[in-house]
Structure formats: C-alpha cells, structure tokens
C-alpha cells in the first residue's frame, strides 16, 4: 500500500475570520480545502494562528476584572489556552461535518490543547514587540501598565497597545500524544496560536507572558512528526520579491540557498512574510525529501501537486 504524504498545515488568520460569526463561516471553507487534501491521499495535521481570538479573550478577561474586583487578572498563557479550545471547537466540528458529508467515516478529529516550552532566557523577553489586544488612549495605557504591569507602546498614531515577547519554541510538550493520535489515523489540530507558552522549573511548567509564532511552532511539529510537507497558508498565492512595487516578482520553486539570499537582502517583512519564509527554510533544509509550501488556502491542493505556490527544497 502506498504510504500517505504526511502534511502539517499552518492556517493563517484569513482561514479563521476575526469574530465569532466570521470564524464559524470561515472554518467551513477551511474544512473543505483540508478534506480535499485528505481525498488526495494525504495525512493531515492542522496548526493555526490565534491573533484576533486571543485578543478577544484577553479583552473579555480584563472586562471581567473591571466588573468584579475580586477576579484576578487572567495570565496571557491561559488566554492562549482558551483560544486554542475556542478555535479547535469550531474547526474540529467543521472538519468532522465535511468528512461525513463526503462519506469519510473512519477519520476521527481531535483538538490537542498544546503547551510549547520556551527558554526563559530567550532575548525576546528583553524586547517585547508583539502587539496584542485593543488600542487604548494614553491614559488607559498608563492605567493598564500600573495595574497589571503591562508594557504598553504607541502604535503608528493609532493609540497604545500591549506588547509581549515572541520567543522561539524549544519543545512541544504533548508531541508524543500528538504523534500517537496521528499514527492512529486521526486528524489532529494542535499547536494552536503557536502553543501555550510555558517555561520549565524542575517538573513544573509555568505559563509565560508571551506568544509564539505559529509558523515556527508548526515547523517544529512538522519535523517532530517526520512530515513530508509543511504548508504555510497566507493571504497571497506566492511569495514575492519587491512586494507591492513595480519590480514585484513572484517566486515559484526555489532552493534553500536562494531563499537564504533573499532573506539576507531584506525582501521579506518582519512579523509578516519573514517568519513564514524562515520556517519554510528551516523545515525544507532539515531532511532530504522534505518540502515547504507557502500559498493560499484554496490553492493548497494545487500547491502540493506542484502547480502553484512557492515551494522550498534542498
């Protein structure tokens, strides 16, 4: 029997929407694209971002402390855990429904609440830069800073936002459980939002005030699961050089060496396309035969067939 291609898909925010109604609608489209890959004979593991979702949860928890002064502030790590369950709930139900609609009854769907260990000495903790939550004015920013010890920064004239660290993932705590489920033929949703950031002290795992880039976490999971493909889904069909300029050039199949050169030349925006390309390079260079793909959600099937997207290989 021909071995199935094992694929880790990193879903971007456009695959999930920005509000609860948007998400419930978006996951149906997302589920169709994922099940298309399963019908192509692929074994799929799903990771996803949580930018809007964790911000909503965080804002709701802050509102709770204002309504009830006896309620302590909710740590960001707990907000990430809540967002994993919230997104996973909608996503696994949409995937289950799509599988059953196509007569596929032998693939269970499960969401794994996933902790990802980070290094407490990661330099990212010294320079928090990842914005989270809503914009507030200067007076509100000062109050949040004093009450919760938040680091608040002004953002391009639009107001102040909380910023947190974005350390690199070091270990996926539940990887053995994820591997067992995937090997058993289940469709697993894991590492949501890059994972719940934790640091280790002896046997104790402590939540960290941080967010982990979901593309780096997805790359780590893909390597740990010995995947054949890492598909990073974003808002464009291909990666571009000189994006948005008259000399814009879309990239198809490129080597690791070419990608590293483009990175060194500064072609990709930090916090946007750069981490996606870096994660793609990391995965594709980790073992012969591994391929990374960056493309649109609806083009993922054509992408693994080599018809579109930007692919990275040794």
UniProtKB/TrEMBL annotation:
Protein name: Carbamate kinase
Keyword Kinase: yes
Domain Aspartate/glutamate/uridylate kinase: 5-287
Reactions performed catalytically: hydrogencarbonate + NH4(+) + ATP = carbamoyl phosphate + ADP + H2O + H(+)
Keyword line: Kinase, Transferase
Gene3D superfamilies, sorted: Acetylglutamate kinase-like
Lineage: superkingdom: Bacteria
Any GO molecular function: carbamate kinase activity
SUPFAM superfamilies reported for this sequence: Carbamate kinase-like (SSF53633)
A Pfam family of this chain: AA_kinase
Pathway linked to the protein: Metabolic intermediate metabolism; carbamoyl phosphate degradation; CO(2) and NH(3) from carbamoyl phosphate: step 1/1
InterPro entries referenced in this protein's UniProt entry, alphabetically: AceGlu_kinase-like_sf (IPR036393), Asp/Glu/Uridylate_kinase (IPR001048), Carb_kinase (IPR003964)
Family: Belongs to the carbamate kinase family.
């Amino acid at each position: 029997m021909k071995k199935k291609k094992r694929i880790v898909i990193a879903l971007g925010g456009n695959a999930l929407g920005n509000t609860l109604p948007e998400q419930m609608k978006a996951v149906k489209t997302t589920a169709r694209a994922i099940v298309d890959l399963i019908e192509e004979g692929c074994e799929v593991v799903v990771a996803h971002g949580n930018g809007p979702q964790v911000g909503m949860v965080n804002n709701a928890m802050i509102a709770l402390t204002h309504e009830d002064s006896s309620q302590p502030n909710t740590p960001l790590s707990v907000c990430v855990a809540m967002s994993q369950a919230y997104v996973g709930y909608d996503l696994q139900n949409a995937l289950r429904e799509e599988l059953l609609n196509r007569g596929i009854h032998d693939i269970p769907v499960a969401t794994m609440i996933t902790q990802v260990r980070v290094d407490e000495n990661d330099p990212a903790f010294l320079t928090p830069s990842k914005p989270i939550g809503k914009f507030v004015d200067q007076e509100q920013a000062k109050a949040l800073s004093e009450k919760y010890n938040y680091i608040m920064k002004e953002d391009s004239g639009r107001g102040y936002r909380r910023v947190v660290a974005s350390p690199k993932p070091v270990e996926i705590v539940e990887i053995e459980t994820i591997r067992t489920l995937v090997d058993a033929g289940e469709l697993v949703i894991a590492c949501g939002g890059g994972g719940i950031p934790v640091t280790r002290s002896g046997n104790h795992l402590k939540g960290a005030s941080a967010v982990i880039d979901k593309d780096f976490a997805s790359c780590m999971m893909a390597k740990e699961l010995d995947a054949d493909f890492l598909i990073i889904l974003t808002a464009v069909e291909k990666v571009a050089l000189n994006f948005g300029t008259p000399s814009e050039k879309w990239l198809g199949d490129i080597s690791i060496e070419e990608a590293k050169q483009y990175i060194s030349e500064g072609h990709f925006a930090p916090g946007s396309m750069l981490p996606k390309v870096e994660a793609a390079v990391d995965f594709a260079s980790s073992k012969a035969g591994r391929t990374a793909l960056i493309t649109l959600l609806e083009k993922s099937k054509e992408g693994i067939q080599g018809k579109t997207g930007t692919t990275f290989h040794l």
